[in-house]
TrEMBL record:
This is Uncharacterized protein.
């Protein structure tokens, strides 16, 4: 795994000049330095100071430099930053000379791999990225997660504490999103071993999420399939059906058979249903049910807890969101959703069944990709009016007509935004729509702070306002600071 680059969560500068006139004249030059050079200036010191096999966390850092020429700023900042870091932390990572520096921090050291493993476990459990990783570019999140799952899949699963059936399904979905098609059977097999007895209402959800997987009997674990009750038999049968490549075609026929088994679990019914399943899917290896032990199916109440984007102590300062720049498109969304049959103009809410498709459409607008990750959804939930509730994203690609409508929307934006009239859609996505943002939810309401870039001057030519967004299905307005 490549070492993670330094991460600077926030940068705040205070300028003091000999007079208000001199301070004002420096302000514009300092803004240009912040936008274009500050990140590289700080990165050079941070990357040299921290060895590539370690992670060091600094809570906050204050630098004070005096210069008489702005051209000397970068050198002065680097010298002062290195001096404070070098004096404050010895080679073992412990604090020295606390009184000699105005550095306030809690420094820790651990391997990059262990750090990334904790980040991945946090995401798999909660569906949101921990704050340090949320501040990175999206691509720098995906690659370490995918590599870590490829190398330490078993260890990651062994470390997970999965409680409740809806949590199990959420972990399954997130892991399938991060793995390739050839890797997915092993992921599902490892998760099945750890699964508790599923409530009947969840069986179809498993099939919907995993029914695309190919048949793989080599991962079937005989001891786990030991059927000492009807409930275990039903779950075993359902899992086996889930692993069949033909299951998705047979779901309409199979669902009534499951209902029959739940209502009538005598030997004759079980034999009849098993024969029907075998006729539909000849390659299925039906689990063995010991009728003398079957009794009555154990009742397991489904976990109905609504998934929510949980706020951690780190995220209390705000929630980092990918693709927040897509808020630019807000005037066009009612027309797009109406054209795709998601909702009608003026609707006060988007029905839950359409939320995953709406989120996938927003993701396609921002990136051109048809499959989002769970960590992409906080911003989509915000724009769709259901934040902080999470949006589950089953693996389902958008219809060709949906993509065509979205492509037409992006072309319309370019034609109306005269400053970008000769720009390609990909440039619009990379320069504006994929911009990261931070959501602050406080007594004043919802405020989305968009990460600034030098070419934001083009926003002055935008023919519609983005300062306040209030779509008909949003319960309260969103203030945008860009």
């Amino acid at each position: 795994m490549q070492p993670q680059p330094h991460r600077i969560q926030a940068l705040q500068l205070t300028l003091r000049g000999q007079s208000s006139t001199s301070a004002e004249s420096w302000r514009g030059q300092l803004r240009d330095w912040i936008d274009n050079d500050a990140s590289n200036c700080l990165a050079a010191v941070c990357d040299a100071w921290c060895p590539p096999d370690e992670v060091r966390q600094i809570k906050s850092l204050t630098l004070s430099v005096r210069i008489d020429d702005l051209s000397k700023l970068a050198e002065a900042v680097q010298t002062e930053l290195w001096r404070q870091l070098d004096n404050a932390v010895d080679l073992s990572g412990s604090v020295v000379g606390e009184a000699s520096t105005d550095l306030e921090f809690a420094a820790t050291r651990r391997s990059v791999e262990a750090n990334d493993q904790q980040m991945l476990l946090h995401y798999l459990r909660q569906g949101v990225l921990p704050w340090p990783m949320a501040m990175q570019q999206r691509e720098r999140v995906l690659e370490p997660f995918q590599q870590l799952l490829r190398r330490q899949r078993g260890a990651i699963l062994a470390s997970l504490q999965i409680g409740g059936w809806s949590s199990w399904l959420a972990v399954l979905r997130r892991m399938l999103q991060l793995t390739t098609k050839p890797e997915q059977p092993e992921v599902l097999a490892l998760l099945l071993v750890r699964a508790e007895l599923a409530p009947p209402s969840s069986w179809l959800q498993i099939a919907e999420q995993s029914g695309q997987l190919p048949t793989f009997h080599r991962f079937w674990i005989a001891t786990w399939l030991a059927s000492d009750s009807l409930a275990r038999y039903l779950q075993s049968l359902t899992m086996q059906l889930t692993l069949s490549a033909e299951t998705s075609k047979s779901i309409p026929t199979l669902l009534p058979l499951f209902c029959t088994l739940v209502e009538r679990h005598d030997a004759k019914t079980i034999e009849k249903v098993s024969a029907q399943v075998k006729s539909l899917l000849p390659d299925i290896e039906l689990p063995v049910l010991l009728l003398a032990e079957s009794g009555v199916a154990r009742s397991v109440e489904p976990d109905q807890t609504e998934p929510v984007v949980e706020e951690t102590s780190e995220q209390s300062r705000g929630v980092s969101m990918f693709h927040a720049g897509t808020v630019l498109l807000h005037p066009y969304l009612p027309t797009l959703f109406a054209a795709c049959g998601i909702c009608q103009k003026g609707d006060k809410r988007i029905v839950p069944e359409q939320l995953p498709r709406a989120a996938q459409l927003l993701h396609y607008l921002a990136s051109g990709e048809t499959q989002a990750q769970d960590f992409d959804t906080p911003f989509y939930a915000l724009l769709l009016g259901v934040y902080p509730r999470a949006i589950s994203l089953p693996e389902a690609s958008l219809a060709a007509q949906d993509c065509a409508e979205a492509d037409a929307l992006l072309q319309a934006v370019l034609s109306h935004w005269t400053a970008l009239k000769q720009t390609r859609v990909e440039s619009l996505q990379l320069s504006f729509l994929q911009r990261r943002g931070v959501l602050i939810d406080d007594a004043q309401g919802l405020t989305l702070h968009i990460h600034k870039e030098a070419f934001d001057v083009l926003l002055t030519h935008l023919p519609w306002s983005i300062n306040m967004v209030k779509l008909s299905w949003m319960p309260k307005p969103l203030l945008v600071v860009w």
